[in-house]
Amino acid sequence: MTKNSTRLDHVVLWVADPVAAAGFYEEAVGLEPINVTEFAEGKVAFPSVRINEETILDLAPLTLAARMKMVPGAAESAGHPVNHICLSLPADAFDALRTRLAEHDVAISGIDHDLSGARGNATRSFYFRDRDGNVFEARHYDE
């Protein structure tokens, strides 16, 4: 891929407690936290977690909702999670994620097979929710 191809850069999630949300994503999901200390010190508006080298989740506090005036209705989106976000993982990382979530008492769905996605039909997938109710799907494809 090149820097000029269309890709997903980031998704902003509304969360009640960004530090706790970053902890959840680090401990239960295994994602790298970014700017958590800086957020706690008031130096940045929100922390993030890294999905891969080119995609992050921003963990925006609900208190920022009033500042979301770039388009009509943006402020009203606070607290309304998207339907779900799908993480595509290698098979071993998929299994490790399922284990980590169970160890953190996160409710997870059963395993589905052959659900359609950006790369065709996934071998296996399951769903879980974060601390703020955002729904995630985890999946892997046969390579």
TrEMBL record:
The keyword Transcription does not apply. Residues 7-141 form the VOC domain. Signal peptide: none annotated. SUPFAM superfamilies: Glyoxalase/Bleomycin resistance protein/Dihydroxybiphenyl dioxygenase (SSF54593). InterPro entries: Glyas_Bleomycin-R_OHBP_Dase, Glyas_Fos-R_dOase_dom, GlyoxalaseI/FosfomycinResist, VOC_core. The keyword Mitochondrion does not apply. It comes from the Bacteria. Keywords: Dioxygenase, Oxidoreductase. GO terms for molecular function: dioxygenase activity. This is Dioxygenase. It comes from Streptomyces fodineus.
